[in-house]
Amino acid sequence: MSGQRPAIALGYAAFVQLRHHPYEQYVSARLGGGEVSRQVVRHALRRTELSWPAVLAADPAAFAWRVLGETVALAPLPRYPGADSLHRTLPVRAADAVILHERLGMPAGRAAELMGLTEPELHVQLRLARRLLAERRRYATP
């Protein structure tokens, strides 16, 4: 059993190594970067770490992404026009997919993996976002 703890710690460390930078990019896209964004990522990863054995029994990517989203939602919004506008306009998953794939330019497979989705599920979210944004523009135009 004692050999299991270092393996769990190494697994978590590898998980963080693969996700820390993309998580910071995502949070910066939503909150504008800076120290608040770094704190949000640290807090979300710490929450994930504290639940790591249970996370491993589920889907680690989906769990950590949900925790990150919850942590961002609780953070103070920046004071500039349009801050986090996608998340005020679209369902959360669709907004996240747009940020990762279209704003940050991540390949669809990588964006899906970060969110704990399959690539086809990510494409569904992107299509939903495009449809909803087009409808919104259509109704906003006089």
UniProtKB/TrEMBL annotation:
InterPro entries: RNA_pol_sigma_r3/r4-like
Species: Kitasatospora setae (strain ATCC 33774 / DSM 43861 / JCM 3304 / KCC A-0304 / NBRC 14216 / KM-6054) (Streptomyces setae)
UniProt-recorded name of the protein: RNA polymerase sigma factor 70 region 4 type 2 domain-containing protein
Top-rank lineage group of the source organism: Bacteria
